[in-house]
Amino acid sequence: DQVLHIIPETIQQVQHLQLLCSTFMLDLWKPLLPEDIRAGEDLHIRVPAPLVQEVKESLAQHMISYRVLIPDVQKLVDQSMPRERSSHRDVSGGYVYTEYHPMEEIYQWMTQIQKNNSELVTQHILGKTFENQTMYYLQISQPSTKTKKIIWMDCGIHAREWISPAFCQWFVKEILQNYKTDPKISRFLQNLDFYVLPVLNIDGYIYSWEEDRLWRKSRSPYENGTCYGTDLNRNFNSSWGSVGVSFNCSSNVFCGSGPESEPETRAVAQFIKSKKSDILCYLTIHSYGQLILTPYGSTTEPPSNNEELMQVAKEAAAALTGKYGTSYRVGSTASILYSNSGSSRDWAHMIGIPLSYTFELRDTGTHGFVLPANQIQPTCEETM
Amino acid sequence: RAMELPSSHLSAARAAAAAVGYLRYLRGGPGRGLQLRELRRARRQDIDDVGHKYYLELELEDVLDKDRTVNCTAEVLYHLGSKTSAPDVQVTVQGELRSTEDADQEFYNRIRSLEKELVAENIPDSHGNVPPELEPIHRLAWVASGYVIWQNSTENTKFHLAQVKHVKQVKRSDEDLQFDFVVLLHEMVSQEVLPWEVTLLWHPQRGARVAQSRAAGAGS
């Protein structure tokens, strides 16, 4: 079945369309009644598969132009059903990846993921947040005799960027569902381990669900408990406190009382430092903006391996665009976004991790932080 | 004398956001929501004793007519040293925008015939959803916030509408519709979310105008 989009231009066209609808008993999606069809207004009709050819011919005969809005209605129906497709392994017991999940559900998901995929996944403690929530990361590693290089990815350093943890969860699911059948993924896993931190700023994330959807920072108190939160992405030890920050707790870019003043920052930094000789790539996922950002934010001086960084980023952006046409810009934070110091990405590069990137996912401002859940799937698919 | 800028350069992106705000105020409505698809080209000119002028080529789309491309050129002049005056913006849209006459009239009649004044909050909701009957109101919020964004843009700011916190219709004795909005604007450079109170008047033939606007007190 197909849904056609038509804008009738004349009364004659309107009449012909009304006739078509009643003769073939077509399913009008917009407007609801044939008598409401008007010249100059959108018309959406669903045409059952056996009639598609005939209806299109009739439209052509009457010089009525149309566009195929939905080429396969059944496919769309199937995609919007929240169930795992039968050809895929059930990696997480029916978890719905096309919805946003609160923190307790993400904790349950991690447990389930490790349970169902214990040959590949182990869950580890990274540290604790200010409010004493446990920070876990998932290690996806195929047993092997050789030591493998690591790709680290963290999501949710900023509480309101909900699409970011949604992507980390999606990413894990995709790897686990397809590693046996997808040659690219299986080759990755032969040579690399993935370490994924689905939510870095757990306290902030919970706060954005319970109190303030647009909260950004952590939830550590300052100034005698009259002010809350450090911008964790200004708190790392990379030119800390030099540019693009505030020393005032009430600011959304408050960089904390010193580099790594926050437990969340320390938890991540300590771990990455301990593994740094094996980490090939550091990825940190944010929203919004549709950008792949390279070092640095604290200076416009290009990093030593800028050419390589840019080339890889450009190839990634091109691959991403190839999926749904979504365009991403590539460049250093300082040149395409703003100046900032103390970012995790800058820090990772400065301690020697060669490929360090910040991803700013969809969109470019239309919905901003409040990205509709129906964009989770396309955003994640293109970013994969 | 105008210097070419890479179109991904941050100053070009900021000027584009100001231009889009202005354009939304001028041409937006319940039946039309313009958004930026791509900044194609940007040039900048430093004018002695006057300020910085950006020449932009923008590719936009109407959310209600996504298949079509709306091309436009914009000039954004930020006045030197002035912290309190809005940038001068001029926008030229190439070609015709899709007519919204019928949709506008229908919306107008629907709101006028409401027994109780319309009230709503959190548009979109936390999960990004907007109930279909509130979509035209959401687009009017784009118009209202477009005005505020234009008026408050500088070379060091980039504003987007983050969410409509609250909207209340106020019935009037004249023919305009009045909506009192509280909009939350996200400012990219400071990362702040700034609440603004905006009173928007709208009429299907006469279009929109902001009656008053002010930064709201510290949020909830």
TrEMBL record, chain A:
Active-site residue numbers: E360 (proton donor/acceptor)
Location within or outside the cell: Apical cell membrane
Gene Ontology biological process terms, A to Z: proteolysis
SUPFAM superfamilies: Protease propeptides/inhibitors, Zn-dependent exopeptidases
Family annotation (SMART domains): Zn_pept
Domain Peptidase M14: from-to ranges: 99-384
Swiss-Prot/TrEMBL cofactor(s): Zn(2+)
Topological type in the membrane: Lipid-anchor; GPI-anchor
InterPro entries hit by this protein: CARBOXYPEPT_ZN_1, M14A-like_propep, M14A_act_pep, Peptidase_M14
GO cellular component, one term: apical plasma membrane
Predominant location: membrane
Keywords: Carboxypeptidase, Cell membrane, Disulfide bond, Glycoprotein, GPI-anchor, Hydrolase, Lipoprotein, Membrane, Metal-binding, Metalloprotease, Protease, Signal, Zinc
PROSITE patterns (alphabetical): CARBOXYPEPT_ZN_1, PEPTIDASE_M14
One annotated GO molecular function: metallocarboxypeptidase activity
Function in brief: Carboxypeptidase which preferentially cleaves C-terminal acidic residues from peptides and proteins. Can also cleave C-terminal hydrophobic amino acids, with a preference for small residues over large residues.
PANTHER family: CARBOXYPEPTIDASE O, PROTEASE FAMILY M14 CARBOXYPEPTIDASE A,B
Family recorded in the similarity comment: Belongs to the peptidase M14 family.
Protein name per its UniProtKB record: Carboxypeptidase O
Organism: Loxia curvirostra
Gene name, Swiss-Prot/TrEMBL: Cpo
TrEMBL record, chain B:
Ranges of residues in domain Cystatin LXN-type: 1-102, 119-220
Record InterPro entries: CYSTATIN_LXN, Cystatin_sf, Latexin
Record's keyword terms, sorted: Protease inhibitor, Repeat
Gene3D superfamilies: 3.10.450.10
Source species, domain of life: Eukaryota
GO cellular component terms attached to this protein's record: extracellular space
Molecular-function annotations in GO: metalloendopeptidase inhibitor activity
Any Pfam family hit: LXN
Keyword hit for Repeat: yes
Record-stated family: Belongs to the protease inhibitor I47 (latexin) family.
Protein name from the UniProt record: LXN protein
Organism: Loxia curvirostra
Gene, per the UniProt record: Lxn
